[in-house]
Amino acid sequence: MKSPKNLNTLDKTETPILSEETLIHHSVYVKKLRPLLPSDAFEPNSSKLGLLLINIAILLLGWGIAANLDRWSVYFLWLYLPLAVIMGNSIIVLLFSSHDFMHGSVQKKSRLTYPIAFLGLSMLFMPPTQWKNLHNLVHHNNTNSVADPDRNYLYQQPDTWGKWIQNLFVPSVEVNPLWLIVGMAGSWLVHNFRNLTSVLFFNDKSVDYVPAAFTVSQKDRRTIAFECLGIVGIHLSILFYLEFNPIKVTLAYILPIAIGHAGAMFYIFTNHMGCRMTAINDPLINSMSLRVPKIFDLLHLNFSYHTEHHIFPSINSNYYPMVQELLQIHYPGRMNLIDAGEAWQLLMQTPRHYKDEVTFTESSGTMAVNCSIVEAYKSRS
């Protein structure tokens, strides 16, 4: 096992762990900040629907060009790689724009909401009804608590296949670099597969191979099953269009999906995994926002402002910077806001299981790292 780098340079006692009494509930932030924001911030921004459709068009264009790759000289196939990267970014944008769409910040609910969300999430293999239950209802109401399916596993949880794969794939002090590369491209699929099978096959909170099992109504369960069939149909259609040709499939299907999923997972890994657990839903403590180059905020709809999103899930994402400014004015030094590179370094230098709400440990349970290590990073940024 690798030893944690630079952990001894961080004074883990300089910022005390917050007790449950010092946590602030999400609703308190909302009550404080909502009157300070313009009413326009809470109006749907339909321009992002156009962004979603543009990126679907980019994918269609990429597959159209790929249909002729068998006519290209092998020496020129590398010219397709920049397009594959652009297609990968389009998959990231589809996730983040669909994410905003499902929260109601793009347009008010209409007959178009469902089919657009279905198309937007299909490249992520995510049924929109599953997303509504998992993300909007469960994750946002139980962020980084024992009941959150998106949290790290507890050390005390059984060593199931789900826990083993996550320990193998996710950034941590003990991850193998080669498995981390696989994990960047595959962790979204593993996360999705775990939750889908938990709901479709069992729909019981006793399921132990997910971090936290949740249930859906029988109607939603049937809808999720049909949506899965529809998504499989879309992906099979793409593969048929590419004639199952190994070169076409590799360059225009596998590579863009791998790039897109890896890019999305960079954000998702840092959203909460480096933070402590909280019994009280305090987004400034259980979530993390990143400082990234402005081009990425422009491309990815300000997804780096994740704490801000957890306070106002349905706000127009263009106003996240304003929310951040208000948080820094009214709650100075409280939120987890660090550079993206430091956030990644934090994940790579700490274990990925919770020994308790405020302590990280690794798969063997021999290490004990205070979750407030994020505070030490934050104070140096």
How would you describe this structure to a colleague?
The structure is a single chain. The chain has a 3-stranded antiparallel sheet with strand order 3-4-5, with no helix packed on it. A two-stranded parallel ribbon has the order 1-2. α2 (47-66) runs antiparallel to α3 and α3 packs antiparallel against α4 (113-122). The chain has one domain. The model is unreliable at 1-16 (pLDDT under 50). The protein has 15 helices and 5 strands. It has helices at residues 26-33, 47-66, 81-103, 113-122, 128-141, 161-169, 177-202, 218-241, 246-272, 283-286, 294-299, 306-311, 320-330, 340-348, 373-380, and strands spanning 288-291, 336-339, 353-356, 359-361, 369-370. It is mainly alpha-helical. A hairpin with a 7-residue loop joins β4 (359-361) and β5.
**Overall strand count:** 5
Structural class: mainly alpha
* Biggest beta sheet attributes: 3 strands, antiparallel
Q: What is the terminal separation in angstroms?
A: 28 Å
Question: What percentage of amino acids are in beta strands?
Answer: under 5%
Note the total helix count.
15
What is the CA-atom radius of gyration, in angstroms? 21 Å
Secondary-structure map with pairings?
Elements: H1 26-33, H2 47-66, H3 81-103, H4 113-122, H5 128-141, H6 161-169, H7 177-202, H8 218-241, H9 246-272, H10 283-286, E1 288-291, H11 294-299, H12 306-311, H13 320-330, E2 336-339, H14 340-348, E3 353-356, E4 359-361, E5 369-370, H15 373-380
Parallel strand pairs: 1-2
Antiparallel strand pairs: 3-4, 4-5
Helix pairs in contact: 2-3, 3-4, 3-9, 6-7, 7-9
